[in-house]
Each structure stands twice: as structure tokens, then as C-alpha cells.
């Protein structure tokens, strides 16, 4: 195969535990290391993240490894710092808490060489050092009901989709579209992909390209993540409405429906609430059954999935409401 120059860009903030896993994955890549550069950007971490980066750079056999700072400490600015340094024909974005198999770069480049400007594959969630309870959290996150209905999470057939995670982009895509919007702290990729689509670029999904994203290992951390994600969906609706898909707003609509039907029930109109809750419980039980069938290591703790789904939906929806009404 032809070997294009590749830039792997990674930003991190206090990722001393997760980052070494990803860096080891990069060392194991089958793609020619002499055609690969790695751009590492640290958001002024207070742990050993920067030391991990430096040690990787000093021992690496890649064409080039660069360690940079992200003084603004937000994701969008970190990506912009990395993009300003990247020199490759193809740029691949990876989160610090991701994990990739040895053929990850190779398969992405094969896809780019076939004529795609942007490509990516299936992203599965996992938890290192899994426990019976964290397995339940991971099952919720891998479920369409608890995680996301995005094609790159569940679709098994190749084709064009609206968005991707851990994507590979031809350099000219960023040159034409510009950098990331630093007004957005968590939805910067939604806005960037929106601008790419407006420029006429298409996102090609190949399920043979597989990567992994780490699920938050505790219920508290997972629900807090959902709340923050929801908050920035609400904020982004006010900044760039076209960046947000309808399914991002479902948890907010659920919270609104809970409040509205509860108010009606208070005044004696309980029938609407009964129908809504009946439908929600039915769907939740069906999604729980689907998650149990999908997972091989099931335990009695999986019976907590209905309650877990409910709290995650509530956390995300309340976060979106907060973002919508925020004065900032």
C-alpha cells in the first residue's frame, strides 16, 4: 500500500492512568512508524500526564513526537494547538482515554486511499479492570438507550453517516473548514462536523475499523459526564442550532414531559402521565432485555439497568435544561 504521512493528534488533561494504554497501542501499530508523527497536547495537567508524554517522546521510533501545552485547558483549544503543529497528509484525532488495535491506522489509510476525505469506524465502550458493577455501567453506555444512537456506535454496514468519532481526515479538510470553535467546551466536534458537511465533505463509516473508548468507571462519574454533555448540548443550541441532531434533545424532552405531566397530575389530569410512564417503563424493560442478551458476562446486578437508564436520562436532560437557560 502507499504510505501517506500521518499525524496522530491527542489532547489530555490529567490522564496519567489512561494515556499510557493509548501510547502503547500506538507503539504496536502496523503502519510505518517513519511515516507517522504523534502530536501530544497537555492541558496543564496536575498529575504525571506531561511526564508520560515526555517519556514516550524520548523512547519513540516515530518520525516525530511533539509535546505541547494547552494553556486554555479546554478541548477545542487543545485540538487547535495540535492542528497548528500537524504536518501529515492525514490527521487522526484520538482521545486520551481511547484504545486502538494494531491495524487502526493502516485500515484508516486504506479507506482514505480508496477516495474518502473523512473516514472512521465503530467505537465500542470498555472499562479497564472491569468489576461486576462496572460491567453494568458499560452495558448501559454501550446500549442505544443509555449511550447513543449514532451510527458509529451500533451500525454494522459501511456507508456514509452524519458524524464519526476518532476519525481520519485529509489535511485539506481542516485547511478549508478552519479550526475548532473555542466557545464550545464539549460539543466542538459537533460544530466542526457541521461546518465540514456544509463544505460538502462526507463521512465514510467502515465498521471494520474498530476503536475503544473508556467508560467512566463509577455511577457518579458516568452520571456527571452525562450532565455535562447535556449542559453543552443546551449551550450549543443557542450558538449553532444546526450542529445538534434531534436525538440530542430527547433527554431534555423527557425531563420536560416529566415536569409537564406531573403538573397535570397534580391538578387531577393523571391519564397523560400514566400513558407516558407506561410507555417509558415498557421501552426501558425492552432495552434492558436487549442489553442483557448482548452482554456475555451477566450478573444479578444487571437488574439495576432500568434505574440506571432513568438516572442517566434525567442527568443528561437536566444538564440540557441548564445549558438552555444559562445566561452566559
Describe this structure in words.
It is a single chain. The protein is α/β, with parallel strands linked by helices. It has twelve helices and nine strands. The longest helix is centred in the C-terminal third of the chain and has 24 residues, at 271-294.
Highlighted features:
328 residues, alpha/beta, 12 helices, globular
In short:
This protein is an alpha/beta fold. It contains 12 helices and 9 strands.
Give the low-confidence spans.
Answer: none
**Helix coverage percent:** 40-55%
- Strand-residue proportion: 15-25%
H and E string = EHEHEHEEHEHHEEHHEHHHH
Number of helices: 12
Q: Based on helices, strands and strand pairing, what is the structural class?
A: alpha/beta
Report the radius of gyration as a whole number of Å.
Answer: 21 Å
Number of strands: 9
Overall pLDDT score: 94
Task: Give the overall form.
Answer: globular
Distance between the termini: 50 Å
Tell me about the largest β-sheet: 9 strands, mixed
Amino acid at each position: 500500500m502507499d504510505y501517506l504521512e500521518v499525524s496522530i493528534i491527542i489532547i489530555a488533561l490529567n490522564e496519567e492512568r489512561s494515556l499510557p494504554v493509548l501510547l502503547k497501542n500506538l507503539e504496536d501499530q502496523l503502519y510505518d512508524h517513519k511515516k507517522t508523527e504523534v502530536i501530544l497536547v497537555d492541558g496543564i495537567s496536575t498529575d504525571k500526564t506531561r511526564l508520560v508524554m515526555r517519556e514516550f517522546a524520548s523512547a519513540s521510533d516515530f518520525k516525530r513526537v511533539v509535546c505541547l501545552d494547552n494553556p486554555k485547558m479546554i478541548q477545542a483549544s487543545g485540538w487547535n494547538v495540535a492542528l497548528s503543529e500537524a504536518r501529515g497528509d492525514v490527521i487522526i484525532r484520538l482521545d486520551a482515554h481511547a484504545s486502538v488495535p494494531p491495524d487502526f491506522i493502516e485500515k484508516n489509510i486504506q479507506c482514505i486511499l480508496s477516495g474518502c476525505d473523512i473516514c472512521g469506524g465503530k467505537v465500542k465502550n470498555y472499562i479497564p479492570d472491569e468489576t461486576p458493577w462496572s460491567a453494568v455501567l458499560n452495558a448501559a453506555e454501550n446500549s442505544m438507550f443509555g449511550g447513543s444512537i449514532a451510527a458509529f456506535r451500533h451500525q454494522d454496514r459501511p456507508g456514509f453517516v452524519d458524524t464519526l468519532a476518532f476519525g481520519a481526515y485529509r489535511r485539506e479538510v481542516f485547511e478549508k473548514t478552519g479550526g475548532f470553535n473555542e466557545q464550545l467546551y464539549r460539543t466542538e466536534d459537533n460544530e466542526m462536523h457541521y461546518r465540514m458537511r456544509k463544505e460538502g465533505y462526507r463521512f465514510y463509516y467502515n465498521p471494520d475499523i474498530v476503536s475503544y473508548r473508556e467508560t467512566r468507571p463509577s455511577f457518579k462519574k458516568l452520571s456527571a459526564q452525562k450532565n455535562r454533555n447535556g449542559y453543552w448540548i443546551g449551550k450549543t443550541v443557542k450558538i449553532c442550532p444546526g450542529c445538534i441532531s434531534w436525538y440530542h434533545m430527547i433527554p431534555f424532552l423527557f425531563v420536560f414531559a416529566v415536569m409537564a405531566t406531573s403538573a397535570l397530575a397534580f391538578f387531577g389530569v393523571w391519564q397523560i402521565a400514566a400513558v407516558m410512564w407506561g410507555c417509558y417503563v415498557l421501552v426501558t424493560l425492552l432495552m434492558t432485555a436487549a442489553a442483557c442478551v448482548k452482554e456475555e458476562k451477566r450478573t444479578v446486578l444487571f437488574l439495576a439497568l432500568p434505574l440506571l437508564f432513568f438516572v442517566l436520562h434525567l442527568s443528561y436532560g437536566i444538564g440540557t435544561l441548564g445549558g438552555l437557560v444559562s445566561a452566559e
